[in-house]
Amino acid sequence: MDFDKELDARGLNCPLPILRAKKSLAEMQSGQVLRVTSTDPGSMKDFAAFAKQTGNELLSSTENNKEFEYFIKRK
Amino acid sequence: MSSDSGACWINGLKQDYQEIFVEEWSPYLGAVLMILIIIGLMVSGMFWGIYGGLKLWGDYFNNMIGIGPFLGVPQKLETLLMHRMSLMNMTLVLGAFCAALLSRQFLINRPPKLEYVWATMGGCLMGLGATLAGGCTSGGFFTPVLHSSPAGWVMWVGLIGGAVIGLKALLWTLEHIEWGMQAPRTLHVPPVLLSVYPLLGLGVVIAVLYWATDWYGSGNERLEARGILILAGFAMGFIMHRSRLCFARCFREPFMTGEGHMTKAIILGLAIGIPIAALLIQKKLIDPYLGIPPTFWMGSLLGGLIFGFGMIFAGGCASGSLWRMGEGHIKLWVAAFFFAVSGSISSALLKKSGLMVVEVTIDEIDATKMGYQAFFPVMLNNWGWAILAGGAALLIWYILVSYNECTEKFTVL
Q1: Chain B residues with CB-CB distance to A48 below 8 A
Q2: Is A14 considered catalytic here?
Q3: What are phi and psi of A7, to 5 degrees?
Q4: What is the CA angle B103-B108-B114, rounded to 5?
Q5: ipTM of the predicted structure?
Q6: Do B186 and A67 count as a contact with CB atoms less than 8 A apart?
Q7: What is the per-residue pLDDT for B1?
Q8: If exposure means fewest CB atoms within 10 Å of the residue's CB, which of A47, B56, B269, B392 is most exposed?
């Protein structure tokens, strides 16, 4: 999937992946896509809740060999 | 036909395994199960606490490096496996480790360098805060609230304040500190190892069960009691990992994303637990003062503030740090280490300064300069009012969280 900005949140556990994603999204324009990688098992639920709460669309959320990958579209 | 039913049965097993051991549990389920275990502990005459065990580990370390006598750290220490909270802490980590293996989530998780700084700072503050409050989020907040002590609620106030200030501080650091944010390479688990994780997990369960039954059936009264604790701690670690139950999240999340699930789960747990605990206390199955620290109210408030701030930077509360250790997060190993050492040092120095020397008052309760053992039924003269006080506090908390979920009025992001 295409993306405009990337956030490497590996090694971080909650609340940092969400906090850093929020900061990255704030620096982006509406419609742009942020790619986040995380190794926190709790991040899947966190990002789903974050997307729902903030209105930024979670385009996809996948796991590959302990690394989680999220694509979030800035609202 | 028989092979069909065989395949169906195996598929059923696989699905059950997936649902029970892989999928995340609801925090409400986690909270209710935790209450069950805690009630079980109470019936056995024990209360749930984590800080006491960590402090013991800190005492051992400080004695080992030679600063113990200088600080005033106790020299004669109970052994790590005999000290009840220490034992439960260890099996809590094991339980989480086992759960992480069964769900194939265990991973040695290395954080960016800056996180080690926060783990150190957060851990040190948590140790100090827990000493002042007479306990951590478990022993200084959750357990006293359960035992109808206002000390828990005062720590609650402190924890909220500390969490808000900590969150704002953390946000500030995200804006202003660039150093040490580079994530190290993820340590990938070889597929062969990953595939046997569940077997390893099963091995851990069997080993722990064997250990517990060996002690329980030993005929030695001390070992018998501790056999139960082995299982209780293990179960708690397992449950907390599966449901990702965390007091830090409980206090922090409403101010961060507005989401209140963890908070409401803890509220539910307390709502169920307080009346049951009240019954057990009235039936004299447990002495409530065992679970009430002599810190009402200055110690609880100050301690809560400091602990609340620290846990935001550490990335977990007391129990949260332990189960994340079991999941493989290196940052929390560091945080727990400094929590332990700081707890030992704080305790020794605060005692030496006279601030936290325990004295028995005329009413035969413990007191320090930071407070006394406050118990609602004594303060309010009857149990009815005591339960009402606890219930009212829970209701207010619930209303604030629900209101915030809709309006996000209290979020600081």
Answers
A1: none
A2: yes
A3: -125, 120
A4: 130
A5: 0.92
A6: yes
A7: 52
A8: B392
CA distance B340 to B343: 5
**Owner of token pair 């409980």:** B250
Long-range Cβ contacts of B174-180 (<8 Å, 24+ apart) = B174/A19, B174/A20, B174/A23, B175/A23, B177/B114, B179/B113, B179/B114, B180/B112, B180/B113, B180/B114, B180/B115, B180/B116, B180/B117
The residues facing A69 across adjacent strands are A37, A62
Structure tokens at B261: 């699930």
Amino acid letter for position B185: R
Question: Which tokens is B75 given?
Answer: 């020299």
Q: Which two tokens stand for residue B273?
A: 């637990």
Looking at A3, A10, A12, A14, which residue is catalytic?
A: A14
The distance from CA A33 to its chain's CA centroid, rounded to whole angstroms, is 10
Give pLDDT, residue A52: 85
Q: Which three-class secondary structure state does DSSP give residue B362?
A: coil
| Residue A73 tokens, joined | 């579209």
pLDDT by 10-residue block (mean), chain B, 413 residues? 77 92 95 96 90 97 95 93 96 98 94 96 98 96 97 98 96 92 90 94 97 95 94 97 96 92 97 96 92 96 98 96 96 98 97 94 93 96 95 98 93 84
How far is B91 from B37, CA to CA, in rounded Å? Answer: 14
What is the C-alpha to C-alpha distance for residues B343 and B161, in angstroms, rounded to an integer? 21
The one-letter code for the residue type at A2 is D
Residues of B in contact with A19 (CB under 8 A): 170-171, 174, 256, 413
